[in-house]
Amino acid sequence: MPRLLRRVATRLLGSIPVLVIVVVGVFLLLNSAGGDAVDAYLLSIGGGDAQQAEELRIRFGLDQSVTARLALTLAQLARGDLGYSVALNRPIGAVIAERLPNTLWLMGSATALSFALGSALGVLAGRRPGSAADRLLSAGSLFLYSIPNFWLGLVLSVVFAVRLRWLPVSGIETIASGKTGLARAADIAQHLVLPVSALGMIYLALFLRVMRAGMVEAWGQDYTLAARARGVAPWRITLNHAARNALLPLVTMLGLQAASMLGGSVVIESVFGIPGFGRLAQEAVAGRDGPLLMGVILVSALMVVAANLLVDLAYGALDPRVGGPR
Question: How many domains does the structure of the chain reveal?
């Protein structure tokens, strides 16, 4: 088996116990909380008697013991079945498939923006430590990193959507617009400008600082000093030697921030009214829908595992020594 496929298989097999621990832990935590989906449903319709509540619990299997429900949940997940949402009265898999693309668009665009601009500005700042550009970019990144993303989102919304009226204030696309093809894609892109900026700017500042620190360290290494002694052009040293090696800690940071960015997207979705995972988690909590919240958390864990797997592969591509024979 090629080394790459062996590494992927090893990472995937190692993630199975992690996912099992996540499922069991979340199930026990949700079970320890007071109330259930039946209580929330009866409250939303103005109340009900004890017999009606008991019939609903029997219908949705909430009358069984904790062990029986945990075993049923694990059996369903092993078959790829996420269960049924009591609050939304729909299969959980269908609900997640409907909401997941919005969150992926938001996270993917914010990640691409923050990583590309952060690494480029980090190279510019770290190319000449102590210069005016370095000081200006370092101060700007510190300022951006200290701003909460929800506050930045509100400010951007007030300035560009309310006052200037340049961009939409909320949503993922114009409701009932009838647009298709490129027109719809342009409409979605226009709606994503503000939330992507609000989410990506915070991580742009973080990636800039990490890349700048890596560049400063790389300039003092033997391989850059040897390249300078051989008379290699400064821009070649910057791109081919210093920047390539400075990317390693930045890629590692990208994997570590995957879960944090997912949590940040939940807040941004609430601020801009995007129907994604954040809104879905809120609906699950408000409706005390344990199976739906379990599905959201499990898919989120899968996304974090996939992100870290991609980071491992990228790390191996940047440094061929990683994953080599011991």
Answer: 1
244 found inside a domain? yes
Beta bridge partners of 91: 84
- Asked if pLDDT for residue 287 goes beyond 70, the answer is yes
Which residues, in sequence order, are CB contacts of 126 under 8 Å at separation 6+? 134, 211, 212, 213, 214, 215, 216, 218, 219, 242, 246
- Proportion of the chain in helix, strand, coil states, percent, rounded to 5: 75, 0, 20
Q: What is the CATH number of the domain that holds 231?
A: 1.10.3720.10
DSSP string, 109-166: HHHHHHHHHHHHHHHHHHHSTTSHHHHHHHHHHHHHHTS-HHHHHHHHIIIIIIIS--
CB neighbours of 253 closer than 8 A, spacing ≥ 6? 206, 207, 210
Q: Does 286 fall in a domain?
A: no
* DSSP-derived secondary structure for 219-264: HTSHHHHHHHHTT--HHHIIIIIIIHHHHHHHHHHHHHTHHHHHHH
- pLDDT value for 27: 83
Give me the domain span that covers residue 223. 96-275
Measuring CA to CA, which residue among 192, 30, 183 is closest to residue 101?
192
Paired residues of 84 in beta bridges: 91
Sequence-separated (6 or more) residues with CB below 8 Å from residue 2: none
More confident residue, 286 or 156: 156
Bridge partners of residue 85, in order along the sequence = 90
Query: What is the structure's pLDDT at 326?
Result: 43
pLDDT, tens digit, 9 for 90 and up, residues 194-252? 999 988 888 888 889 888 888 888 887 787 888 888 888 887 888 777 777 788 788 87
**Residue 296: closest CA among 263, 255, 251, 252:** 263
Residue 86 lies in a domain: no
**Token digits of residue 89:** 């009265």
In a domain, 255, yes or no: yes
Instruction: Supply the pTM of this predicted model.
Output: 0.77
**What's the CA gap between 116 and 119, in Å, rounded?**
5
